[in-house]
């Protein structure tokens, strides 16, 4: 017989957490960021190493770190580079990049102007100014889902502010509708109240600037100084 020890599962990153919540239908458009913030406020979990890094269970959540479902790491939705207004469902659509990087020369790839990354029916990000796309890996470096954007989910790949994709950008999200009642039944007061809620949620992140949100179209737009 050989003696062996079991190991606790690794804490979840932000992207992995959202993926699992998508799979299991946990929460609603408005409640997911609230759930995540609540368990942080109650000190069931804590951040380990800043934005994008996993967070582990505290003594209240589990005295020996993350073990099993109750010890799984979770993360707040208002950290830099991770703005959360969760949409329903998952969209497997591939990214569309403009301009078409395949048509550019090696020299042109080093200075792409107003790079746009689009996920149809989900959202788009416009990276302002010139971007060096020589080693760009969109699938690796961008997570774009309904109501959710995360750039550089793996912090090891994240460059300093102003370099790569960690720069001034405009984000437009689609299909971010209020939960509950059909939109046409909402009063003007309720529509404005939800818009104000989205504004507050956006600007909780000091790097974000709210531009607009439309309940009727589900379009949410904001700018970031960095991710």
Task: Please render the helix and strand layout as text.
Blueprint: H1 14-24, H2 31-41, E1 45-47, E2 55-57, E3 82-84, E4 96-98, H3 106-109, E5 112-119, E6 123-131, H4 138-141, E7 142-145, E8 148-151, E9 169-173, H5 188-203, E10 208-214, E11 219-224
Antiparallel strand pairs: 1-2, 3-8, 4-5, 5-6, 6-9, 7-8, 9-11, 10-11
Mean of pLDDT: 75
Total strand segments: 11
Sheet having the most strands? 6 strands, antiparallel
* N-to-C span: 51 Å
What is the helix/strand order? HHEEEEHEEHEEEHEE
- Taking Cα atoms only, what radius of gyration do you get, to the nearest Å? 19 Å
* Unreliable residue runs: 57-93
Helix content: 10-25%
Class of secondary structure makeup: alpha+beta
Strand order of the largest sheet: 4-5-6-9-11-10
Question: How would you describe the shape?
Answer: globular
Q: Beta fraction of the residues?
A: 15-25%
Instruction: Give the helix tally.
Output: 5
Describe this structure in words.
The protein is of the alpha+beta class and 227 residues long. It has helices at residues 14-24, 31-41, 106-109, 138-141, 188-203; strands at residues 45-47, 55-57, 82-84, 96-98, 112-119, 123-131, 142-145, 148-151, 169-173, 208-214, 219-224. Strands 4-5-6-9-11-10 form a six-stranded antiparallel β-sheet, covered by helices on one side. Strands 3-8-7 form a three-stranded antiparallel β-sheet. Strand 5 (112-119) and strand 6 form a beta hairpin.
